[in-house]
Every structure is written in C-alpha cells, then in structure tokens.
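Let us work through a complete example step by step.
Step 1: write down the sequence.
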Amino acid sequence: MSRFRYSALMTDLYELTMLAGYFQKGMHEDEAVFDLFFRKNPFKGSFAVFAGLETALRYLEELRFTEEEIAYLDTLGMFTPEFLDYLRGFRFTCKVSAPPEGTLVFNHEPLLTVEGNLAEAQLVETALLNIINYQTLIATKAARIQNAAGDGVVVEFGLRRAHGPDGGLSQARGAFIGGVRSTSNVWAGQVFGIDVKGTHAHSWVMAFPDELSAFRAYADVFPDSAIMLVDTYDTLKSGIPNAITVARELREKGHELLGVRLDSGDLAYLSKESRRMFDEAGFPDVKIVASNELDEFVIDSVRGEGGRIDVYGVGTNLATAAGEGGGHLGGVYKLVRHGDNPKLKITSEMAKATLPDRKRLVRVIESNGTFHQDVMCREDEELKAGDRVYDPTNPSQSKRIPEGVRIEDLRKVYMENGKIIRELPELDACAERCAEQFEKMPNGTLRLHNPHIFKISISQGLNDLRNRLMEKHSEH
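Step 2: predict the structure and record it as tokens.
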C-alpha cells in the first residue's frame, strides 16, 4: 500500500464538470452502475493479469477534497459556491466488486464494477483507470517475461525508465504480482516489502585504475553479496578472468563470489562461455546475471540458443510495457445501468459495444482443473452445463457449456458503503494466485507467438438483453 494520499484532483476536468452538472440538475444521487474493462488483450496475447485493486480501494476509501483543492477549483471560475460546498462533504460510499489481484482476466470482462450514486461513481473514473490500467498492464508484461524465463529469476530494473516516481512504485508492485518478485527500487522495497537487488554500474569500474582493482574494492565492501559487472572492457578476456581472480581471493577469506552481470553483447554465447570458465575454475555456484534491453522475446531466444543465465534484470521493456500491442491497456469505464434502466453504448463496431446491466463473471473449469472459458451473465442468471453461450463480438457464433465442468464466480465484493469489507491479501499471495492460474491455462494460450485465444462468452440472458436494447435504440 502506498504511503501517500492521492489527491482528489487526480482526475480529468470533465469528471468534475459532469459532477457539477449532475449536481445542478438534481441527478447526483441517482443510482448508477459502471464497469471497468478493456477490449483487447495486451501484447497481442491471450490474457492479462489483474492488478492495482488494493491501490484503487485505498484511494477510494481516503477520497476527500481538501480546502486547498477546493480553493484551486474556485480559481477556475467554473463552479458555483453551492457545488464547491458540496465537495467539502464529498465521500465515496459506493459498492465495488472485482476479481482478486493476480487473477488472469480477459478482454470485455468487467474487472471492476462500481455501484452507487451517479456523482461518486462518475468522479472516480479517471483515477481508477489510471491505477488499474497501468498495474494490470505491468503485471501482464511481468508474467510474460517470467514465463519466458522458465526457472530463471527475473529482477525488475526499471525505475530509471518508469513513468515518473509514482510510476516507479506502481510498476514494481504490478511486476511483483505478475511474478517478478524483486526490484532495484529501494523505495518500493520499503513501501511494499519487496526484496531489493542490485550490483554496480560501469562507472564503479571506471572510477578505479583498472578493472581488477575495482572488483577487489567492491568485494572488500560487500564480501558476501558481490556481483561484478564484467563487460566494461572485454567480457571474456578481462571481466571474467578478473572476476575469477577475486572469487579465489574471497574464498581464501571464507567468502564466495555471488555472481557476475553481463550487460552487452551476445548474451547466449557470453553466458555459455562464462559458465564454462567459472565451472572449470571451481566456481559452479557463481550466478550469471544478464541485463540490457531484455524482454520476453529476447529471453526466449537466449534460452532457445542454450544460454546459461540464472538471473534476468529487466528494465525499460518492463517499466514501459514496451512491445507490439503493449504500451497501454486501453481500459474503459462505462455506464451500464442508470436508475432502473440497463444502459448500452451503441456503435457500428460490435467489438466496441458495451454489455449492459449488472453482471456476474464466472469461470468454467474442466474436471482436471484446466480453465475452459469465462462467461458473463446477468446478475440473477444461473448457469449450468448445457446452457448456450455466445461470442460477445459475434453473437451469431454460439456453443454450449460442456458437461462435467464446474462453474465458479470470479469476483467478490471488496467495498460496501465506501469501506473495505474484506481482508486484502499480501502481495506474495497475489503473485502465487497468478502463478497457479498459469498452470491451469489451456495448451497454446501462453505461447509468445500466435497464442490460442481463451474463449470469452456471454449468456443467453445477457445476449437477449443486449439485443432488446439494440432493437429499442434502432426504433428511435
């Protein structure tokens, strides 16, 4: 949990102008339901890892307008004294439902649902999208990277390339949930209790008369945790031989060299040669760490070429969620019910049309534990084997829920009347959930290239409701 308060002004101006409009028109206490979801799986993959829920819930629970913030809004000359006075007593009192963090989720599914009065549910749109979009995106990227690394350890090195100081914190948290359980970010270590890791920079080596002197000095200061950066001059002719020399000197003093880091060149070849040289010198336990613009595809390639890397330090491409189909999640926040009326956004693209009303999100699980598909249905609708379900973007395609499966609700109510009502799990538990769910995904859905797309469906009842609303709109 972050140790600072998010300002109530962490919002787009139009949230406040709509709020003021609802207030002036007497609509601010109308009942409303909003869903937060995304339309496309990131990175052209088959899944996303839900993250950011605790951050979002803490923001909602602490949401207040300070006198300083209200005074600033007054300077804009847009808002009435009555509305500004209303903001002084503003509190978030809605209900919030969501899957647990670390759950694998998919496009079109309602990740977060906010139910309450229109004013409160509308105002928090921007902040919730900011929090959930980024942490879910980073958790997904981290899961892809950790999955590519196999048994290798991944360390998050991305602070210097993160999207600002809070981005550095948020991406360390999201990455942890996705499976990257250590970071170079000391602040994230303090705030979230994440294990912190680090080596030294090339400047350390260059600050000494020669590479061997630099290695000896570092080993003298950190005799039990020294990892030497070996590519400042020449990895195989200088860096590794000097690291072996220092490893021998440490052993004579009762210590062991922890590892070396490769930060350039052909990582597959260099890691194989480095491993051979350390093994022949009698140091099979020295870890080989690699960095330098790594991502899931580079790691997959290095492993495919027989690389001998133990630890991958991933920075830029994790912190910025770089890669085809990455960079942003594209989550949206849409009104699905106003008062007693289900609401539907109509568009010429069925893929961009919304799914109306309150919904359940369930997962159909095969007898062996493998995830079969997810289904969205109406709140009061009970699903069972044999029921027909429909493709949300192409409802002409349908299939039946197979026999012999079990059906589980994915979401829980985490907040009632603006208060968190259930204990939130530690980050370790969220990361374990993610890892366990990976084991249950169908064959082919986790591969990096052209993965099978996990099946998402809507129920008969939800499909019928959407069709009725579309017909009703077409009549006007």
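Step 3: interpret the result. Residues 223 and 402 are 60 Å apart (CA to CA).
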